[in-house]
Amino acid sequence: MADPKGFLKITERELPQHRPVDVRIQDWREVQEDLDRGTVTKQASRCMDCGIPFCHNGCPLGNLIPEWNHLVYTHDWAEAIERLHATNNFPEFTGRLCPAPCESACVLGINQPAVTIKNVEVSIIDRAWEEGWVRPLPPPTAPAAPSPSSAPAPPGSPPRSSSPAPDTTSPSTSAPTASAACSATASPSSRWRSGTSTAASPR
Ligand code: SF4
């Protein structure tokens, strides 16, 4: 748990200021000024580690919010990023762009300004990038897909024969050719399939 009395000692939210618009439009830097880590730690200490943390329900990702609030409060930033990445692949995006429904769901918000969850989140990931803790985790290489011939035959299907399938392309096969289809002996359906107009099409 963060500071059990944190929300009694610090009752106001403190967030980074937005840089002036006329300055921001001149560059591609952050919209907000940096907030010092001491302030972020104090804000995280306001988390009450609720028995039923409604922030979890508010977060579409189910972020482990009380856990990383506690880790930030205890200055364990390395473990905080591990807990954050456990449910969120891109906190550098959500920590800047998410409308933070978690804060609207925060229980502390009932009678005080809610915990600055979103700012704690972006502070964790920014620190992790600075420290080089964010590393690619490529998935283990998937085993090669079995070739169709080695795949087991589906249940109930005839056993695969080792002899190769008959070659239907060479002229010596018994498939009916167009002239054969037109002969008087060809079945009505083969004539219909061969599209000859002499025979009435089956209704
Ligand atoms: S609801 Fe608010 S106070 Fe409760 S655990 Fe979540 S962030 Fe902390």
Question: Short summary of the structure?
Answer:
By secondary structure, the protein is mainly α. Helix content is 38%, strand content 0%.
What series of H and E elements makes up the topology? HHHHHHHHHHH
- The parts where pLDDT drops under 50 for at least 5 residues are 195-203
What is the global morphology?
elongated
User: Counting H and I runs of at least 4 residues, what is the number of helices?
Assistant: 11
Distance between the termini: 79 Å
Mean pLDDT: 83
Helix content: 25-40%
CATH architecture of one domain: Orthogonal Bundle
CATH superfamily of one domain: Alpha-helical ferredoxin
- How does the major sheet shape up? none
- Hetero ligands: iron/sulfur cluster
CATH class group of one domain: Mainly Alpha
Radius of gyration: 34 Å
Task: Furnish the topology, listing elements before pairings.
Elements: H1 6-9, H2 21-24, H3 37-44, H4 54-58, H5 65-73, H6 77-85, H7 91-97, H8 101-105, H9 117-131, H10 178-182, H11 188-193
Helix pairs in contact: 3-5, 3-9, 5-6, 5-9, 6-9, 7-9
Bound molecules: iron/sulfur cluster.
